Amino acid sequence: MGAQARWQTIADAEGSGLTLSKVRKSFGTVDVLHGIDLAVEPGEFVVFLGPSGCGKSTLLRVIAGLEDASDGTIRIGGRDVTDTDPSERQIAMVFQSYALYPHMSVKENMSFGLRMNGAPKAEIERRVASAVEILQLQPLLDRRPGQLSGGQRQRVAIGRAIVRDPQIFLFDEPLSNLDAELRVAMRIEIAKLHQRLGNTMIYVTHDQTEAMTLADKIVILRGGRLEQVGRPAEIYDDPANAFVAGFIGSPK
Ligand code: ADP
Ligand code: MG
To answer: What top-level branch of life does the organism fall under (predicted)?
Structure first.
């Protein structure tokens, strides 16, 4: 990253698209990703959809740099990031389990990462205030995660991602711990967030409704391979095979 401080966003003339070329991942002798080729346009909302165990989380973690790819290339905005640390990828990830620090207040949870990376106080305040406004977290700022509902915790986790000002957001089944009603409300909130921020977002789910309503583009995964990539209507109307048709609940 050179002289660029870790809390700063890298201005990138080529935008914040993502390109995966022949990305493989093995754990020991077990091949989990079998050579993934995928292009994500800047600003696109892409949903990875597939059954449990098909490699969705592994693919996200490889994109984030939390796992090394065994082979292949990952480019963000035209920059080869395959061998870089997670902190150099300008990515923020939101997990199903929220991953908040239990002993810190909401405000501390949101500012901690920037503080660790040496961002100036005024910059931290500015970014936290912006995320608080976007997600309406003002009334919760002094609470600890244990004093929040599941939906509130997930909003804080999303706020913490926004504060990092990433080029790309990665969401790993962020709503699966919430009850059905709250899931719908949060889904709408995430769609609005995408409209407002315009960032590239990659969202993992095994829920077809979430995929169909949120995605610009759906990527169907099975057994570590891409079965089909397309707009929701394309996939619904013209599934590539019986697996996709069955999974998406299409009439074909
Ligand atoms: P999904 O998120 O689609 O449910 P995962 O990416 O979590 O799937 O897992 C895909 C496969 O990779 C599973 O068979 C899982 O057991 C295996 N796997 C994931 N992480 C590891 C790991 N750290 N070590 C060994 N196997 C793993
Ligand atoms: Mg998973």
So the answer is: Bacteria
Contact 137, 156 (CB under 8 A): yes
Taking alpha carbons only, the member of 144, 158, 147, 154 closest to residue 175 is: 154
Q: What is the ipTM of this complex?
A: 0.98
The rounded distance, in Å, linking the Cα atoms of 34 and 32 is 6
Cβ(215)–Cβ(175) under 8 Å? no
Separation between Cα atoms, residue 249 and residue 56, nearest integer Å: 20
Residue 61 pLDDT > 90: yes
CB 205 within 8 A of CB 51: no
- The whole-model pTM stands at 0.92
Tens of pLDDT, residue by residue over 146-205, are 999 999 999 999 999 999 999 999 999 999 888 888 899 999 999 999 999 999 999 999
- For residue 250 the two structure tokens come to 């299409």
Which of 192, 184, 243, 227 shows the shortest CA–CA distance to 56?
A: 227
135/154 Cα distance (integer angstroms): 10
The answer for residues whose C-beta is within 8 angstroms of residue 125's C-beta and 6 or more apart is: none
Closest ligand 1 atom to residue 67 Cα is 23
Closest ligand 1 atom number to CA of residue 60: 6
Name the residue of 27, 29, 33 to mutate for ligand 1: max ligand atoms within 8 A of Cβ: 27
| Cβ neighbourhood burial of 3 (10 Å; 0-12, 13-18, 19+) | exposed
Is 87:4 a contact under the CB 8 Å cutoff? no
